[in-house]
Amino acid sequence: MRTYLVTGGAGFIGSNYIHYMFRKYDNEIRIINVDKLTYAGNLENLKDIEDRDNYTFVKADICDKEAISKIFAENDIDRVVHFAAESHVDRSIKNPEVFVQTNVLGTAVMLNCAKAAWELPDGTFKEGKKFLHVSTDEVYGSLDDDPNAYFYETTPYDPHSPYSASKASSDMLVKAYMDTYKFPANITNCSNNYGPYQFPEKLIPLIINNALQGKKLPVYGDGKNVRDWLYVDDHAKGIDMVQEKGKLFETYNIGGHNEKQNIEIINIIIETLQEMLPADDPRRANVSTDLITYVEDRKGHDRRYAIAPDKIKKEVGWEPETMFKDGIKKTIAWFFEHEDWMKNVTSGDYQKYYQEMYKNE
User: Fold this and answer.
1) Cα(135)–Cα(4) distance, rounded to whole angstroms?
2) Taking Cα atoms as reference points, which of 170, 188, 36 lies closest to residue 110?
3) Among residues 86, 137, 240, 302, which one is catalytic?
4) Once rounded to an integer, what is the mean pLDDT over residues 112-139?
5) Domain residue spans in the chain?
6) Residue 185, CB half-sphere, CA atoms under 13 Å: how many?
7) Mean pLDDT along residues 305-331
8) Statement: residue 40 has pLDDT above 90
9) Reduced to 3 states, what is the DSSP secondary structure of residue 59?
10) CA 337 to chain CA centroid, nearest Å
11) Where are the alpha helices (DSSP H) in 76-151?
12) 163, 194, 305, 350: which is the annotated catalytic residue?
């Protein structure tokens, strides 16, 4: 049975990845989920799989070398999928040090512990071991409005926020380990994800939640900043395919072919909510473009991101399957079916039970 160590598996993308892997492999794999349980880590995301015999949760900080080394010492880890990161740009602007600590130092600890566990006396590595570092397209900076301009794996790094700078730094560490030690790793840089379990500080769940409650829908600047949107299940599939079919030491961009302006996203959500809400649902009256409120632009706000996933399609055989019009309906339907989840997250109640459970760890 292959054993996966997933960092940040209680977060949005990490928890969706774990669900995807169990759907695909069921009892053929074992997953150890390591998460510090910051505000973005929510074990309710994994409630339906927490009792599986082939799933283990460990509350630990990836910056804690002793804790991470212990996991490697006690388990024969075959794959590392490294999601754990501080990821919200606004928070990085307010407190950059936390992002450097987690995203840079935490990645260094993960690399060192995996290297120590997997390296053979002759400097080579045990067969079949692989480390995948999950990163972002934001490390490439900002594109202009030229529709033919895209991020490629060869695009020079040009990060503009403390968040993207910390992720660029972590990418460079992984690259250095691959070059220096021939450490068996890959890097993936993905576009904006959306889907179930996304923390409501991010654009799509924020707009869905606010619209249903008749609250203002904040839009930075003129609302014309462009992002490439990737449904989270497509991303999970891409990560798995890179680990199984990707060439070692390579970077793969994972993009959705779903470029949209932020204001377009908000209008699509409003239209889709109006379409999906029953005629007698009182929340229907709340959902209106009148809620759109333009606010002061974010500092250093990148204008456009767009990924060309040509390399991963050619070498790995992956391409996005979910168009935005379909993915947003799936996402809204999920939020309709999990209203208690959203209430627990927005109230902070989701943290209380697990904080008590793990208070001595």
Assistant:
1) 18
2) 170
3) 137
4) 98
5) 2-199+231-259+300-323
6) 31
7) 96
8) no
9) strand
10) 22
11) 89-94, 96-99, 106-118
12) 163
| Mean pLDDT lowest among 40-44, 116-120, 168-172, 307-311 | 40-44
CATH architecture of the domain with range 2-199+231-259+300-323: 3-Layer(aba) Sandwich (3.40)
Is 97 within 8 Å of 215 (Cβ atoms)? no
Residue 137 annotated in active site: yes
Q: What single-letter DSSP state applies at residue 297?
A: P
Distance CA(258)–CA(50), nearest Å, equals 33
Bridge-partner residues for 34, per DSSP?
7, 58
Tell me whether residue 178 is exposed, middle or buried, using C-beta atoms within 10 angstroms of its C-beta: 0 to 12, 13 to 18, 19 or more: buried
Residue 315's pLDDT is: 98
Percent composition of the chain: helix, strand, coil (DSSP 3-state, to 5): 50, 20, 35
Measure CA of the first residue to CA of the last residue in the chain; give whole Å.
28
Interval 99-113 mean pLDDT = 97
Report the Cα 287 to chain-centroid distance in Å.
Answer: 28
Tokens of 45: 């995301």
Percent of the chain with pLDDT over 90: 85
Radius of gyration, alpha carbons of the chain: 20
Q: What is the pLDDT of residues 142-181, one digit of tens each?
A: 998 777 899 999 999 999 999 999 999 999 999 999 999 9
Mean per-residue pLDDT for 347-361? 61
- Asked if pLDDT for residue 356 goes beyond 70, the answer is no
- Of residues 39 and 189, more confidence is placed in 189
**Hey, which residues does 136 pair with through a beta bridge?**
190
| 337 is known as an active-site residue | no
H or E segment at 3? strand 2-7
Q: Residues 259-295: pLDDT tens digits? A: 999 999 999 999 999 999 999 999 999 899 999 999 9
Are the C-beta atoms of residues 44 and 344 closer than 8 Å to each other?
A: yes
CB atoms within 10 A of CB 176: 13
194 is an active site residue = no
Catalytic choice (86, 138, 234, 302): 138
Per-chain mean pLDDT for the chain: 94
Three-class SS of residue 119?
strand
The residue type found at 268 is: I
User: Do residues 342 and 201 make contact, with C-beta atoms less than 8 angstroms apart?
Assistant: no
